[in-house]
Amino acid sequence: MTLKHQLDDIDLNILEIISKNARIPFKDVAAEVGVSRAAVHQRVNRMIELNVIIGSGYHIDPKKIDYKTCTYIGIFLEKGSLYSTVAEQLKSIPEIVECHYTTGQYAIFAKVYAKDNEHLKDILSDKIQKIGGIASTETFISLDETFRREVPIL
Backbone phi, then psi, for 55, in 5-degree steps? Predict the structure, then answer.
């Protein structure tokens, strides 16, 4: 049985509501879904235990804390088998906020925030490109984030 089959329509409705506003009080979710506040609390806790809901918190606008350059970096590896070793080292670079093992041209695709282009150059030359197993990188600077959203629930 897939995880999707472990969730019923009430769970999916709760997910849809809280994915749009994580700070909404459970009493408001309960009123909208038509169940008790305790039921919402129990269902959310169960979905956390099932890793349907991963993490919680606030989205921070990087520009408001002086990270003005958003970049995507395609990383070529000397050998695909080096992925785990390289990924572990990339994890230690705090400016890398996402890292994906991909098909296609790059073995790894990473999202990086830098304070400016000089900071980006330092991240690339002094951190990323010094990792053993990385053959080369290709950098794409994002000019604007048009939108961000969660996957559709219903």
Answer: 75, 170
> Contact at 8 Å (CB) between 136 and 77?
no
Structural domains of the chain, ranges and CATH numbers in brackets: 3-49 (1.10.10.10), 62-142 (3.30.70.920)
Q: Are 133 and 75 in contact (CB under 8 A)?
A: no
154: nearest Cα among 19, 53, 16: 16
Q: Is 82 left (phi over 0), alpha (psi -120 to 50) or beta?
A: alpha
Query: What would the DSSP string read from start to end of 100-146?
Result: EE-SSS-SEEEEEEESSHHHHHHIIIIIGGGSTTEEEEEEEEES---
- Predicted confidence pLDDT, tens digits, the chain (154 residues): 456 568 999 999 999 999 888 899 999 999 999 999 999 999 999 999 999 999 877 888 999 999 999 999 999 999 989 999 999 999 999 999 999 999 999 999 999 999 999 999 999 999 999 999 999 999 999 999 999 888 888 7
Q: φ and ψ at 124, to 5 degrees? A: -65, -55
